[in-house]
Amino acid sequence: MNGLIGKKIGMTRIFDEEGRHIPVTVIEAGPCVVTQLKAAKTDGYSAVQVGFGPRKPKNTTMPMQGHFRKAGVEAQHIVSEFAPDEGDELKPGDTIDVSIFDGVELVDVTGFTRGRGFSGRIRRWNQHRGPASHGSKNVRRSGSIGMHTKPGHVLKNTQMPGQYGNKQETKKNLTVVRIDQERNLLLIKGSVPGSRNGIVTIRISR
Amino acid sequence: MSNIIDSIRQENARNDLPEFGIGDTIRCKMQIREGGKTRIQNYEGVVIAQRGTANEKAITVRKISNGVAVERVLPLESPNLTGIDVVRFGRVRRAKLYYLRALTGKKARIRERRVYKKK
Lengths: 206, 119
Prior knowledge:
The complex is a heterodimer. Chain A has a single domain (about 5-115, about 170-205), classed as Translation factors (Elongation Factor Tu (Ef-tu), domain 3). Helices cover about 10% and strands about 40% of the residues of chain A. Chain A has helices at about 40-45, 60-70, 120-125; strands at about 5-15, 20-30, 30-40, 45-55, 75-80, 95, 105-110, 120, 160-165, 170-180, 185-190, 200-205. In chain A, the strands form 3 sheets. Chain A has a 6-stranded antiparallel β-barrel with strand order 1-2-11-10-7-12. In chain A, a hairpin with a 4-residue loop joins strand 10 (about 170-180) and strand 11 (about 185-190). Chain B is mainly β. In chain B, strands 4-3-2-1-5 form a 5-stranded antiparallel β-sheet, with no helix packed on it. The termini of chain B are far apart. The interface between A and B is medium-sized, with 16 and 16 residues.
């Protein structure tokens, strides 16, 4: 197993043994329950499917209830797949905790960034605003978005207003500062995508 | 705030620092690492600002060093801050003494606040 599902708790700071200040994100990682093992023979690829967090059975769809019943586990809040390691001897119902990150230096963290709704180009792309006075009507408007007859269309990926945030993002190669096995905590240097209490997946960096 | 965050902040908690406030002159014993050796260096100045809550406080200490004004932001929980002595209590009416930056010489003085021990 190369990762876990977790919940972002928030950020704080700690000091290392030389007194240096380290900003850390606290993540409650796992424990995760194995809900299914996918094999190349039957599913076309091999993976470990795990669940995280409780969910009331009445809030779980009937197909997922059946899925969890088959694995013999309680209803889970969220399920996700991870790549298995060679020699893993897992079976549905097994619990995986934060100890898989023991001795790991770098991890990738995936989460949904905080949603900012439909945002203008200033907030979304850090563009500048136009002049406020002298009869200007272009304070926060978009300026020119392209050329003339040539090329005759707006180029792709032009920075324009639109939905900002609430999009899956991965931050790679973040340093693991500390592992707290008792409380299933993972302290990672720096920030990770998402809001507090947001679901994140943590994978060991390749 | 979350209990988990609070408990991690609690690890840095300390109660060996004396009580002091804005406007006080303090002597900070800073641990300095030089070439594998550590020594204590005193840094004495006026507390002009404090920020943060609970176990994440930091103070700004201002001093004039050889005619050059120096301000350092010191996290109170830092292990490099080995102790604080209060040199002089100051009587001020503001929480942030940023106005001192514009003043020099006699104008930059702070009135002393006499502290009497309780009987």
